[in-house]
Design a protein that fits this description.
Structural class: alpha/beta
Distance between the termini: 33 Å
Strand content: 15-25%
Radius of gyration: 23 Å
Oligomer: single chain
Number of strands: 17
Helix content: 25-40%
Strand order of the largest sheet: 2-9-8-7-6-5-4-3
Largest sheet: 8 strands, parallel
Shape: globular
Amino acid sequence: MLVGKSLSDVPTPAAVLDRSIIERNCQQMLEACRLLQVAFRPHVGADSKAVNLVVSTVSEAENLLDYLNLCKSQGRSTNVLYAVPFPPSQAARLGRLARELGPGSVSVLIDNPAQIQSFQVFTEVTGFNVGVFVKVDTGYHRAGLAPESLEFKRLMALIRESSDFQGHAELQGFYSHASHSYGGDSAIVAMNILQEEIRGLVKAADIYRDMSNDTRRLTLSVGATPTATSVQNITKEPAVSLSAEEIAMMESLKQNIQHANTEYILELHAGVYPFLDLQQVATQASPSAAGMATGLKLSVDDIALTVLAEVVSVYKERQGPESLVAAGTLALGREPCKSYSGWGVVSDWGISSTPDMGHSGWQVGRISQEHGVLTESSNSGKHAPDLSVGQKVRIWPNHACIAGAGHGWFLVVDSSLPENRRNEIVDVWPRWRGCYEMRRDRSGPPGPPGPSAPSLAG
């Protein structure tokens, strides 16, 4: 229905992914992990031997069931980690998923003793234990326990001694997520936060080892896209000379990675690294994967997701020239970006006489539910070219995860194709969204969205 059409011929707003950019972003991340000999747990993806994934909702895990069963049939081990501290209400539902996949397939996070009491429900459904990671707070203060806290030590004692844990669960490791790294603005900041994560989890694991005499090489899972991708600075040759501070930071991080990976199994996790967005570009945490040059700075050329929108009105006599697109909060999200004052930046796609390479000079200056008001870019300092009613534009979002959530599917293009085919839709990827969505029939491209329904899987 949509494959083969041009972006100029499809209804808007629509989420558009560039497959070529996704592939090179993924390849750069996987290559860095390979060179550093550390494990990787993406939100989507796998290596040739093990398929270890992170999901944010149980619905995502359920939608992965067919893929995971396929991986199992190929002799690959599978594990899905539900990365929210364990909700008791989800014990049976996660158990039903694990029962279909087999022992070791589902892991959960805990950071409170009360969560352990629901493990029995899981094992009654599955007949085997649930895998457990302890959530450690290494500075973000969203979830988890600080390793030096009394709460953490009490939880470690409970894991060691409680029959509720010992009879129904197996400790697999420790997990942290450094979303505060989104506030950084350089590779040094991101690498420093990653070091703090690694040290925090090593400390947590050492405390548990001393209390329990458990000498296994437990997994230490650290990350967030800025911190996880910052390791690429170690493995990619820089294009410019580095400062003494940068050289020292890279060497220190490399040593910390090697130490942690000797005593334990170090694992990086990340979510938005294949798509990236304006928030990620603002962190400057990793080098660009664009082009053949090495050491280039992260830029909009590395962002795979844009939102296709239509200009529906223009206002030339306001205080500054403005235009209106029929794409607001539900299409773009509403998260700020620290590098500028808007809610999205309009690319130069389809716009001639652009003032800056890559940028059109327009940004989404104001936003409401279904309306986006385009204003001249606060960072451009130049006059933006005129837009016309009916014209389509592509907008880089501030936060790809939130922007993507408003769309039922992604339209896939490929910028590595010949120039006359770069606007051609080459695939359509249905998006899994909601907390209780039934698995879709993925035998063909989606039709118009129908009414939503709660999952009937269990």
